[in-house]
Fold this sequence. Notes:
By secondary structure, the protein is an alpha+beta fold. It folds into two domains: about 5-230, Rossmann fold; about 240-384, CATH 2.40.50.140. The protein has ten helices and 21 strands. A six-stranded mixed sheet has the order 6-7-8-3-9-10, with helices on both faces. Strands 13-12-11-14-20-21 form a six-stranded antiparallel sheet. Helix 5 links the parallel strand 7 and strand 8 (about 190-195). Helix 3 packs across helix 4 (about 140-155). It is elongated and about 80 Å long.
Amino acid sequence: xxxxxxxxxxKTFQDGDEEIVAVDDVSMSIDDGEFLVVVGPSGCGKSTTxxxxxxxxxxxxxxxxxxxxxxxxxxxxxxxxxxxFQSYALYPHMSVRENMxxxxxxxxxxxxxxxxxxxxETGEMLGISPLLDRKPSDLSGGQQQxxxxxxxxxxxxxxxxxxEPLSNxxxxxxxxxxxxxxxxxxxxxxxxVYVTHxxxxxxxxxxxxxxxxxxxxxxxxxxxxxxxxxxxxxxASFLGEPSMNFFDVTLDGxxxxxxxxxxxxxxxxxxxxxxxTDLVLGIRPEAVELVEGGxxxxxxxxxxxxxxxxxxxxxxxxxxxxxxxxxxxxxxxVATIDGFTRVSEGDTVTAHIPEDAIHVFDxxxxxxxxxxxxxxxxxxxxxx
Length: 384
């Protein structure tokens, strides 16, 4: 096991006369035995970051250390890491056993019987012992994924690197393999960096998550902290399905004034906003409540149901402040409600947007000025 330190890592590519910055001044520390998930949209630099850790890409600037040893110029095979690729990268002409043993045969002086023992033990751990003499073409996607994991595990590396290893699996198998990977990593205790574009994988698997956008690190923290206390509007929008609601507003005294509504705020929220007046009000869909009563109560608004998406245990409801307004102006509020709550298109309802659940961002920089606290979120769950 090992610690991993990225200190101001930068990667640039040259495209003719143009310099393209793929990873821009990224710093993060991964603890011994930690499971860190790096997540972000396509093209954000997450796979490039992983490839620099693996030694498959050179580092333009910054320092990469494994157990306090700088490895910028150390060859990939000498870094004591193992990587699982999205494509699995299995040798098609070799059996499962040969695929798993190949790395040990090439990089160690272990005798054949010891290598066979290690491969057999790893195969039993992963439940693929009956498959050891088959070729990759005879295996399902899930089985190939286990073989790729086994090939990495059998090397007993200091660091695991995984580049979207579940993306080729169907949804049901992907969910099963998420659980298996977590259990496996806990059992092995190996420092792991896992790259994905899937926010569900990030939220459910990582001890911490690192969110990238445009090659820059936006936030690194425990999953629930990133969800409830995002560092900026991008993080708030990226995590959560449906996404957080956002409304452009202007601070006017103790009120946030939007195109179709006004929202009064208390002293605590007002103090967090300082002198910034161009703001964005955010609210998670699950924090919106449909209540009885009129719309004259603070933080309650009369709305019209536009679309209802039944999801079984819950409904996603699209509400209009003004049914005649253009939805692109921000007149739509998305709410996630209990699946047994009956609402239909065209119904008039009252939506409550609780002040202890709102987020407020600087409209220019995207920085979070006020967040719902994790304690408030936990208290809300306890009350429910």
